[in-house]
Write a structure and sequence with these properties.
This protein has two domains: 262 residues, Alkaline Phosphatase, subunit A (3-Layer(aba) Sandwich); 105 residues, 2-Layer Sandwich (Gyrase A, domain 2), CATH 3.30.1360.180. Helix content is 31%, strand content 21%. The protein has 15 helices and 18 strands. The strands form five sheets. Strands 2-18-9-1-8-6-7 form a seven-stranded mixed beta sheet. It has a four-stranded antiparallel beta sheet with strand order 12-13-15-14.
């Protein structure tokens, strides 16, 4: 575990940032330490607070991209994401203020024993077979956490893409906030400008932009497409700073996770390991960089032996309960179903290796940029902040 770059839940993670924001906005909940680099007292002096989350903008990407002068000029430092370093776990932390140990969302694919079905957790759709419930019926069955906004005494807003703003997942996690939808990046910044010009009501605004992540997945982290998008974000941040000057607004920008590239030669296809696949009770869960494996008790010695003989170059093998005890998902108290959602074993991929299985009928696709693991490139995200 010594080589892993793990979350710093004691004062250096996105969960601690959310504690600082929540306290500044009047929350009485004190479950985590505030962010060491930005106290609640600093934030509370502002009339407005806005948190802009750029999906996939790791600290490494920002450091390598010179054409982002506004973001680099106002860089306060970096933080860790949560474990795993993936959208499902980290965005839920932004929307609840909780670490995965408490909110219990542990990756893109999750087996939910409450309904005995493996779901893609953000769209709330089954990985295989017909749905047992409509997405809109699932949040009260699967989620027992509230939204961060329910604990705040500021007027709260969520600004999100039109395609997801009213999804079942977003609706559950936006409770007590008002919502605004946008179609394009400039439209998102126009929404922010409008909301933050109000000088009568103090507001907390959470905004989410997904396209840098999708471009990095498809084309890679250093691709022209990703770089152009980051340049556009930086330009629009500069415009927002000018428009809001003198408004007493804290503008914060960060990300849910970073990225690394994993070319095809570094992908382990489970189809190439039928003996291993035969030992699994259900399909892999989690992420390409972090696979939860459900293995029957009588098959565990054979499973451990196979992984150590054939996958040792590419994956660390952990008994999943040990990762809970080691604090990777966050400190206690633990979600009552956390253990059931991370399988019996976890494969934490080394270097830039990934692992993938495909189910009958699934459309196969390559993914160059990946995340979810414990490398510094995946785990560290920037904290950009300015009081204007």
């Amino acid at each position: 575990m010594s080589a892993a770059h793990l979350p710093d839940y004691t004062g250096g993670s996105i969960v601690n940032l959310m504690q600082s924001i929540a306290t500044a906005c009047g929350s009485k909940h004190r479950q985590y330490a505030p962010l060491a680099a930005l106290s609640a007292a600093q934030l509370a002096r502002a009339h407005h607070i806005v948190l802009l989350v750029i999906d996939g903008l790791g600290q490494r990407m920002l450091a390598r991209h010179a054409a982002s002068p506004h973001l680099r000029r106002h860089l306060l430092g970096s933080m860790t994401s949560v474990f795993p370093s993936t959208t499902a776990s980290a965005i839920t932390a932004f929307l609840t203020g909780l670490a995965p140990a408490q909110h219990g969302l542990t990756g893109w694919h999750m087996h939910m024993e409450e309904i005995d079905q493996t779901l893609s957790i953000l769209p709330l759709t089954p990985r295989m077979g017909p749905p047992k419930f409509l997405p809109g019926d699932l949040p009260p069955r699967l989620f027992d956490h509230g939204s961060l906004f329910q604990n705040l005494d500021r007027e709260s807003w969520v600004v999100a893409p039109r395609s997801i703003v009213d999804s079942a997942f977003n609706a559950w996690h936006s409770r007590a906030a008002q919502t605004r939808a946008y179609r394009t990046l400039p439209e998102m910044f126009a929404c922010l400008n409008e909301l933050l010009q109000d000088q009568t009501t103090s507001r907390y605004v959470y905004a989410y932009y997904p396209d840098l992540d999708s471009l990095s997945h498809r084309y890679g982290t250093d691709s022209q497409q990703a770089r152009q998008t980051l340049t556009a974000i930086d330009t629009l941040v500069g415009g927002l700073l000018r428009d809001l000057r003198g408004s007493n607004t804290w503008i914060l920008l960060t990300a849910d996770h970073g990225f690394i590239d994993s070319p095809n030669r570094r992908v382990i296809q489970l189809d190439d390991h039928p003996q291993l696949a035969a030992l699994l009770m259900r399909p892999l869960c989690g992420e390409r960089r972090l696979a939860y494996c459900y293995v029957a008790a009588e098959a565990r010695p054979a499973f451990e032996n196979y992984v150590r003989r054939h996958l040792a170059r590419a994956a660390h093998l952990y008994a999943s309960h040990k990762l809970i005890a080691a604090g990777w998902f966050g400190p206690p108290p633990y979600h009552p179903r956390l253990a059931s959602r991370i399988g019996d074993y976890t494969l934490v991929m080394k270097d830039n290796w990934t692992i993938k299985d495909w189910l009958p009928g699934e459309k196969q696709f390559a993914m160059l940029g990946v995340h979810g693991g414990v490398s510094a490139s995946e785990m560290r995200v920037p904290l950009v902040g300015m009081l204007v």
